[in-house]
From TrEMBL:
PANTHER family attached to this UniProt entry: HTH-TYPE TRANSCRIPTIONAL REGULATOR YWGB-RELATED, WINGED HELIX-TURN-HELIX TRANSCRIPTIONAL REGULATOR, RRF2 FAMILY
UniProt name for this protein: Putative HTH-type transcriptional regulator YwnA
InterPro entries attached to this UniProt entry: Tscrpt_reg_Rrf2, WH-like_DNA-bd_sf, WH_DNA-bd_sf
Organism (species): Sphingomonas dokdonensis
GO molecular function: DNA-binding transcription factor activity
Pfam families (alphabetical): Rrf2
Region forming the signal peptide: none
Gene Ontology annotations for the cellular component aspect, listed alphabetically: cytosol
Length: 144
């Protein structure tokens, strides 16, 4: 099963945008990610609808950050890009009345709910500004 990379890819784009002077075109973003500009526009539309980026048309146009990066979390971006369920693991719904299935489903369901709660909590605790700051610190410590 292929992983859904929308969250990490859009976080990558947003950090580049935060470091970039002026708007970035869909074509430039697509080249950076090795994908199609149409796919970029479709995904960025979710970020625009959430108010995190804006699009500017015409010469010199493109996508630009439209919000304070302190106020946007990784969970916010996950929701804005239409991120899938956090886990692909699920439970089976076999014959009603099967006690084995009931015990198994209860254990798996409880574990998944706890794991999702922890992941959501963690994603909600990290702002885009934190990622940009971490990037800047690491970039500053790299010797050229």
């Amino acid at each position: 099963m292929r992983n859904d990379g929308r969250l990490s890819r859009m976080l990558h784009v947003l950090i580049h945008m935060a470091q970039h002077d002026g708007p970035m075109t869909s074509e430039a973003i697509a080249r950076m990610l090795g994908t199609n500009p149409v796919l970029i526009r479709r995904t960025m539309a979710g970020l625009r609808n959430a108010g995190y980026v804006r699009s500017e048309k015409g010469h010199g146009g493109g996508w630009a950050i439209a919000t304070d990066l302190e106020t946007v979390t990784l969970l916010d971006v996950h929701h804005a890009v239409g991120g899938p369920h956090l886990f692909a693991i699920g439970i089976e719904h076999p014959e009603p009345g099967c006690q084995v299935a009931a015990v198994v489903n209860e254990a798996v369901s409880d574990a998944l709910q706890e794991a999702e709660r922890l992941l959501v909590e963690r994603l909600a605790s990290i702002s885009l500004a934190t990622l940009v700051q971490t990037f800047d610190e690491r970039r500053g410590s790299v010797s050229v």
